[in-house]
Amino acid sequence: MRTVRRPALLDRPPTELSALPRRAPLSARHPDPVLDVVVPVFNEENDLEPCVRRLHAHLAETFPYSFRITIADNASTDRTPYIAARLAAELPGTDWIRLAEKGRGRALHAAWSRSGAPVLAYLDVDLSTDLAALLPLVAPLISGHSDIAIGTRLARGSRVVRGPKREIISRCYNGLLRGTLAVGFSDAQCGFKAVRRDVAERLLPLVEDREWFFDTELLVIAERAGLRIHEVPVDWVDDPDSRVRILSTALADLRGMARLGRALACGRLPLFALRRSGGDLDGDLPAGLARQVVRFAAVGVASTLCYLLLYTAFRPAVGAQAANALALLASAVANTAANRRLTFGVRGRVGALRHHLKGLAAFLVGLSLTSGSLAALHHAAPGAGHRVELMTLVAANLAATLLRFLLLRAWVFPGHDARPTRRTTGSS
Q1: 399 in helix, strand or coil?
Q2: Cα gap 162→239, rounded to integer Å
């Protein structure tokens, strides 16, 4: 049994870590196993041996790099540890570890933390997923294309055999994730995933769950940090002997979603420690500029509509200039908060007051432009109607918006980039 813990960045606080280096392909002459496939087990004396022997034969025949299989036994009480020890002794490149407590997430955390392989993966012992998808799963990580790869049963091209009950539960769970945490990946809990070790070293200290929510939490954090997630449609056949307790697992997942949502909303996760240095380029634009323009435009449209509604409501009571100032002030505060979070990816309370004060300075520039436009209109055409005022304000707001974006990017939030998930879909 392998018990020596490999020294890693896991021992360092995430806040002390520098940015991840840019992804690079792995050498074909890598001296150590390139891939470590973990098989987490609990009381699997019937399925363990056929699974590991089939997996070992598949890798030996089809995988072009060196590999290791790690059996992670988390507190089995049957013959599982004896079978694991025998397999490790018989099959070259097979290892096993034993944990004192249950939990799939705990087993994966322990096995991945100890591994020195540059690509880490896991699959369920029942081999519900066709092993033909294993090479497509890890290839984008070996080539340096992606950070994480997941099998998906819910994408076009997947072939799935399972009962309606589990199908409905799976789709409802992933739909709930999209509705509450706004995730972009399609299948959080398919037991078929891989991650680059440099990414795992940063992710694992941030993942609190040690049971079934482990996968989801890892993926959500990675997505929020802007890491690239590759999806592989899989052929998957349901295991009728699955021991997952649906009700207790669902309740634990809901608690996990609430906890993770609060952590993200309060900015407690140091997502900057997962950034890739240099970033990825969007065509010929600087990294993040195209994304920021799109998000800023969306926030701007909403803010402009809010501003026009407020102006229309205030205008009869306080007059044009006062209505313009009040409407612009209210919409500017909301605009700064929305851009702070959505466009520039700044979360938490640190620096919030400074950002809003600078946002108000940018607001004064907009106020000067729009107020000056109104004054010029009333001087040139004293009898201009409400529709002409609105058209003038819209044009002035467009100019103020462009200037505001430049001020936000260069002065209010310099160096910040709200990176979205880079999710790619392959085929099995």
Answers
A1: helix
A2: 8
- What number of other Cβ atoms are within 10 A of residue 281's Cβ? 12
pLDDT of 311 strictly over 80:
yes
List the single range of 35-49, 203-217, 218-232, 351-365 with lowest mean pLDDT.
351-365
Place of tokens 């399609």: 186
User: What six digits make up the tokens of 178?
Assistant: 């999209």
Residue 416, pLDDT above cutoff 80: no
User: Any idea which residues carry the catalytic annotation?
Assistant: 215
Inter-residue contact 279 to 417 (CB < 8 Å): yes
State the amino acid at position 185 in one-letter form.
Answer: F
Pairing of strands 35-41, 192-196: unpaired
Among 146, 153, 144, smallest CA distance to 124 is for 153
Buried b (16+ CB within 10 A) or exposed e, 109-148: bbbbbbbebbbbbbbbbbbbbebebbbbbbbbbbeebbbb
Tokens of 407: 């001020």
Which strands sit side by side in the sheet containing 67-74, from one edge to the other? 94-99, 67-74, 35-41, 119-123, 192-196, 148-152, 228-233, 422-425
d(Cα 229, Cα 220) in Å, to the nearest integer? 10
DSSP string of 257-316? HHHHHHHHHTT-S-GGGGPBTT---BTTBPTTHHHHHHHHHHHHHHHHHHHHHHHHHHHH
Give the least confident one: 233-242, 310-319, 407-416.
Answer: 407-416
- What mean pLDDT is predicted for residues 255-278? 81
Give the pLDDT mean for 350-376: 75
Residues 6+ apart with CB under 8 A from 119: 26, 34, 35, 36, 138, 141, 142, 194, 195, 196, 197
Query: In 3-state terms, what secondary structure has residue 218?
Result: helix
**How many angstroms separate the first and last alpha carbons of the chain?**
34
Residue 280: which region, alpha, beta or left (left: phi > 0; alpha: psi -120 to 50)?
A: beta
Give CA separation, 239 vs 42, 161, 210, in Å. Answer: 15, 9, 23
Q: Which residues pair with 96 in a beta bridge?
A: 71
**What is the Cα–Cα distance from 318 to 311, expressed in whole angstroms?**
10
The residues facing 293 across adjacent strands are none
What does the pLDDT look like over 21-62, one tens digit per residue?
Answer: 888 888 877 778 999 999 999 999 999 999 999 999 999 999
Measured CA to CA, the distance from residue 255 to residue 216 in angstroms comes to: 12
H-state helical runs in 225-288: 246-265
The whole-number pLDDT of residue 242 equals: 60
Under 8 Å between Cβ of 261 and 347: no
